[in-house]
Amino acid sequence: MALLFLSTRERAPVWHRILTEAGEEMVDGEAAVTDPAAITEIACWTPPADLGRYPNLRAVISVGAGVDHLPPLPPGVVLSRTLSAGIDAMVRDWVMMAVLMLHRDLPAYLQQARQGLWKARPVREAASRRIGILGMGRIGRLVADSLTTLGFDVAGQSRSGAGGPGSTLFRASETEAFLARSDLLVCLLPLTEETRGILGARTFAMLPRGAGLIHAGRGGHLRMTDLREALDGGQLSGAVLDVTDPEPLPADHWLWSDPRVIVTPHVAAQTNPVEGAQHALAVIRALRAGHAVPGRVDRERGY
Ligand code: GLV
User: Which residue's alpha carbon is nearest to atom 2 within ligand 1?
Assistant: First the structure.
């Protein structure tokens, strides 16, 4: 029984040390597989082209928080996404940065700076800025708590998540009311058939005029043409995006040079190798003991 590791070179020695110290076997890379029947788990971002090569595979572990990039798995193979306090905190930090950038007009000040223009804009207090978080899973709740601590007026919408102390929770049926009170809309949704394209003209039209968009979900959530139209028409005043479609964003894409938009190259979180390996270890042990697998994904639901 061994875990096949298919992630980045710099993570490999850390994973190897942690798994070996725990008495588990790790095979580093498909080229090192001598007996495919011995592979019981695969940890990867990009899975092997032929999963059927591994007859005793029990689980595929995504080394990130998302799983939308993974193909259907053979029947009986469990899919687990990495649960890590580090990922949660990194995304939280990125969202805080983006919220504060839009809350304090940074895109406009960057533009003024390029012109050497010293000009104050009205400053709003956090309590007067209503933030709406789409997706109140573990990361959404952490973001909500931190924004609440800073004094923002926070609400979240979720199909299955929960609210937090100090933030209001809107159900899936309350989209209109939720969006109508979102001066800054934060997207932390998983990408599923239901959420693909959700950040488009219909959603933007329900936001207060001049709202801002903060997106750390997936590029597939966002309709780029609708974003441009909403910015040009003034329905949206700015956006901070960590994810785009396509990725990487081509060098000549309009998003790069639009002064109302700030783009970061899908870096909100990067899995810490220690936490990644510890998660994999927890998956292996749960499978062996017949316990619930941490981070298990419901493929029907998509997260
Ligand atoms: C990054 O987007 C991840 O899913 O970890």
Answer: 66
